[in-house]
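INFO worker-7 received task bundle
INFO bundle size: 2
INFO processing item 0
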Amino acid sequence: MNPFRASLKSSLHGNASEKTSFKKQFHMWVQIMHKTSAGRRPRKKVYHREHELDKAIDLQKKPSAILKLKSIIQGKKDKCLLLRDLEKEVGFVQKWNFISVIEKYPAVFYVSSGHKKAPAVMLSEKAEKIAAEEGGVNELMEPIVVNNLRKLLMLSVECRLPLETIDFVHAELGLPSDFKESLIPKFPEFFSVKDVHGRTCLELGIWDSSLAVTAREERYMEERILDSTGNMKRPRISKDGNFSGPFAFHLKFPAGFRPNMSYLQELEKWQKMDFPSPYLNAKRFEVSDPKARKRVVGVLHELLSLTMEKRLTSAQLDAFHSELRLPARLLLCLIKHHGMFYITNKGAKSTVFLKEAYDGSRLVDKCPILKFRDKFIALTGRRDSEPSSCAT
């Protein structure tokens, strides 16, 4: 037997057969009722799979485990973790996944073993050099996450959110795990913590109109600059449903979707329709107003745009339901606008993607911390053409 593997097994009292796990595959379809003549069954509309976005979930598994183990090791006083303590850190079941990661990536993790010393895992020399850059990267990220957190509060009805809700999505926003102690007190002019009806909430300090610009509006302004230089030409209406206008969203329909002309004409009307900014208070608008319904789509678009990887789990989206006045039938709203959003059931949790942010399975624009993680993961042989993973 490989001495390294024997060392791992002797330090962890468990059975390798317990490593087996099962995964369920989900297939989503939505039944749409149509007016039909007697005797006909309602037609079923298939929810088209986006295999590249499904792949993005699969690609995050190993990097997520590597980054989590890195954080555990760096959190130790002597920067190493005794293998016998691995189960305490990650749980009985997950320890086998981490053993596999340690074994598979010697360029990232080094296992020390001596005659009288218990086996311990630490970062390799190359990994240590890259990890040393993280402090500088976190400094670059601080103004980004502070502005995004302010924008998130500005999206909410009362300009405040329960701290437990923010904590639920802190990793996706790029916030440190201890943001309540390390970040919030540093900016008393921007944030205050208050008790509201028995819930601890984070409240916006100063409204900043310069921040009340959506990612959609920023994209439109960039496109107008390209138009003025003659480097970009768009048809008035096209088969992909995209329309270059101040109130239009960027659409990316799945490969199997074939819209007819009637659908495209209705879509063009919707794309041209003006709507209130997501940063205006939702209480001012009637839910039944088509413009207010389009505004809700804008709120979802902006919320996903504020995350590092432009995606959230369904549970995380639902956590903002009351504060952002999201629709009661949120799932149907996301499915209806499948040119913008994609829901995948790959992995343990369903995840909602902002499709325009991805080129295949690759996230197009990456913040400094994601670029840092790509650099770290590159030690395993993976390239930054693959998506980064948010580690908690």
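INFO item 0 finished
INFO processing item 1
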Amino acid sequence: MGFTMGLNLLLLMAMVATNILSLYHLSSTIQTPKSAAPQPVPDHLLHQLHTIRATINHLTRHHPSPPATTKAAKPTIPSDLLLYSQLSPIASSCHNHPELLHKYMSYTPFSLCPLDSDLAESLILRGCHPLPRRRCFTKTPPKSTSSLPQNPFPSSLPDANVLWTKYSCKSFSCLNRQNLNLGFDPPHEVVNFMTYKSELDLPIPQLFQIAKAANSVLRLGVDIGGGTGSFAARMKLYNVTIVTTTMNLGIPNNEAVALRGLVPIHAPLQQRLPVFDGVVDLVRCGHAVNRWIPVTALEFLLFDADRVLRGGGYLWLDHFFSKEADLDKVFGPLFGKLGYRKVKWATASKNDSGGLKNGEVYLSALLQKPVSK
């Protein structure tokens, strides 16, 4: 109540000051002889008027007047969104999607959060990230298992540790029946990254041989767009810590990563990596990083990978695909901007229906960051 009265008093004082200044200017104009040229408004008065009006606009934005009863009332801005905007800045992209943002922030404080993960990801993918914080309790599975597997490749993932109400499938076995390559069957994933089938492949044992030959060490890494975390799971068996950025998009990728004893980071490709500068040894870009990303966004992604890599660290582009002409004219020069040493650079035709139709090729590249730049 006191805060509201203070705002109203400040608004009243600002409006009174504006009127006094306006009357002063008007009276000085009336006293001027008709034959004389109109006198310009003094700069200090213009500055004061501008400051007062800016203050009024700022206050009315944060404390809007109630809508008129005679007209259709506009949607009320959620109180927690107003509160959060005073405590912490909101990404500008959030304001570009007010309906989604207001829906996300319309909840009952201090109670259970609504099951709106799809809404949250819709905002994230539109650049509203990090999302505004909320004062509600996240719902958890009612009968989760008391023990979780230590092995990152367990025989199966426990269904009881996932809230299935927000997904079309209600079990991991359902997801596996739909598509075994989604990554939810750990025994099926155990051979990934270990075998050499074509020039595009880089088995993990070979990666360690390359690092050893260069007197480099692999301890920490980031897997960008890593799905269910199979790469991080395999590297864990080599005592390498990999964090996986992944989105759910209708399937429980983040839950699967966590159930394997790994760390998921719920972040889109356009988000700055929440990792400090020059601290990781490896950044892998999987199938999520491809030609569908706008070139400017991809350029920022690559330079953010450069930011978190230490000198001598590796950037691994794993099966990046694009049109063959674009690889020569666009993406090849883009990767070259980094100035990295080409440890591996292999291309091959993308032979699925989409690849044949669009004349696409795969690129697998292992690039090493210079020790000093």
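INFO item 1 finished
INFO post-check item 1: The chain has 14 helices and seven strands.
INFO post-check item 1: Strands lie at 220-224, 241-245, 263-265, 280-285, 309-323, 341-349, 360-368.
INFO worker-7 idle
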